[in-house]
Amino acid sequence: METATVPAAQAPVAVAGDRPEERAEACSVLRAAGFPIREAADGESLVKLLAPDAPNAPEQPGAVIILAACESEGDHWLEQLARTGLRGRLPVVLVTGGRVPPERIAQWDPSEFLLRPLQPEELVLRVRAALARSSQRAERREKTEALRSRTRRISEAIRGSHDPQAMSRNVIAGLGEVFGVEHSWILTFGDERVPEQALGWSADGIRGTAPALAEEDARPLAAQLWEDATVLAVPDHHDPALAPSCDPLAKSAARDGLGSSLIVPLGHGASAFGLLWLGAHAPRTWTPVEASLVQHVAGNLAHGLVQGQLITAQRQVLERLRDLDRAKNEFVATVNHELRTPLSSIIGYLDLIIDDGEGRLSEETSRMLQVVARNAHRLHQLIEDVLMLSRSDAQQIRQSIEKFNLNTVLRSVVATMAPAAAAGDLRLQLEDREPVQVEGDRAQLEQVFTNIISNAVKFTPSGGSVTVTLSSTDGDGVERACVRVADTGIGIPEDEVPKLYQRFFRGSNATAAAIQGTGLGLAIVQDLVHQHGGELLVQSRLGEGTTVSVELPVQR
């Protein structure tokens, strides 16, 4: 039999068929054409033959010749081929009789189709054609995967930065090199979402120029592409049949010496804010895969630009807030100092007048001076509280850490508050059956418990009680001191308990009862307790009382 001349090295071919004579004829023709041949007389043999771990199997199957006389044989062999996992990936040349309906052959979808009897030259040509197309598809897949991999690295570079200029430079340089173009540009119009940019890249590096397209022409082009969710691929700017009827675009391409272009809109949400433009000197056909990959990178860039703008704005706001906070702290410190100095003098002289005038002042004058002194002390305490909060915000509270007996501190605070409790006909008691040593700032912890016990006394009606309990616990291997201050006072509405730690917040029932206070006490207590590594917990029931618990680590 005469066959066409072929190269000595050919891709391996598997010939499958039930009829030995027909199979032998096909094998003979293909061997003469230089193809390595493997035969399969049944489905099981074909599966073993094409299995990757089959003995003496070729490293990569080339094509399969299926010799099927009828529909059932065709179904059988294609089902066996599917078992190998190569169906759809391996070119199939189907040889069958004329009795098989055309629609059935269309369902099988072979790479090539021949009718019996075998024509040697046609069989060889069809096998070669199937192998050539398969090789081309494999090559395209490899190129596409290589493009995907390289564009993926560009997207990773976008995600690795929040600087709009750096992101844009990475994109135009990366895409220019990946797609082998001479020019690439990024043009953003600038609004609240992104900064305005006009960056260009050419084969010799980054240059800060935009394409020769005015912004008034670029804006409508970007808007139209964004609205249509598409890209503009121009294979040849010199061919009127292939170039779009856009005079500004044609003039821009001519001035930049472009033969072909790929233009992708940049946008976010409902509108576009820029263009990404790739340009080559020579005409070129942009494949759908290339357009899709550039569009994907453009989407990542647009997202990165928007996020970068948000982060930049947030940083600016944060820095401004820090400046304002520093100015506020300085102002508070200055005002407190200017108020505290004269107020200390006022309180000092008031105390002298009241003490030295004992018995010499009229009852009304003494009463008025007592009111003045009481309010002066309240004002002094308010100034101290505000100053304490200011220092806490600025993290300027200094601590003098020492180990001391917490029982002693609580006894001192209870003794100090005893006159106020007695004046209100309250029973104030301390239960500290065991000594508890802690490490902390004695003065600050004394202020913590003074504020808590003072609140308990102030918000407990006549005839009530305030009980202070000291104990120690050992949980999770950490020893803690626990101080509970329980009163039988007016309590706090349940929905207001979480707000107690807010500055200047006062319970609605306290306000209604005209009980004096600034709403700073618990805010200061919480800051000091947290700085000691402790926890503050408030439990309360309206009309029944409140329990405030402080847990402190025994060792810092």
Protein traits:
alpha/beta; 18 strands; disordered N terminus; 6-stranded antiparallel beta sheet; 556 residues; elongated; 5-stranded parallel beta sheet
Description of the structure:
The protein is an alpha/beta fold and 556 residues long. Helix content is 49%, strand content 20%. It has 14 helices and 18 strands. It has helices at 20-32, 43-50, 71-83, 102-108, 120-159, 164-178, 215-228, 247-255, 288-356, 363-393, 406-423, 442-458, 508-512, 521-531, and strands at 13-17, 37-40, 63-68, 92-96, 112-115, 183-188, 197-202, 205-207, 232-234, 260-268, 271-280, 401-405, 427-431, 437-441, 465-475, 478-487, 535-541, 545-553. It has a six-stranded antiparallel β-sheet with strand order 8-7-6-11-10-9, with helices on both faces. A five-stranded parallel β-sheet has the order 2-1-3-4-5, sandwiched between helices. The chain has a five-stranded mixed β-sheet with strand order 13-15-16-18-17. Helix 3 (71-83) links the parallel strand 3 (63-68) and strand 4. The chain is elongated and about 140 Å long.
Write the SSE topology:
Elements: E1 13-17, H1 20-32, E2 37-40, H2 43-50, E3 63-68, H3 71-83, E4 92-96, H4 102-108, E5 112-115, H5 120-159, H6 164-178, E6 183-188, E7 197-202, E8 205-207, H7 215-228, E9 232-234, H8 247-255, E10 260-268, E11 271-280, H9 288-356, H10 363-393, E12 401-405, H11 406-423, E13 427-431, E14 437-441, H12 442-458, E15 465-475, E16 478-487, H13 508-512, H14 521-531, E17 535-541, E18 545-553
Parallel strand pairs: 1-2, 1-3, 3-4, 4-5, 13-15
Antiparallel strand pairs: 6-7, 6-11, 7-8, 9-10, 10-11, 12-14, 15-16, 16-18, 17-18
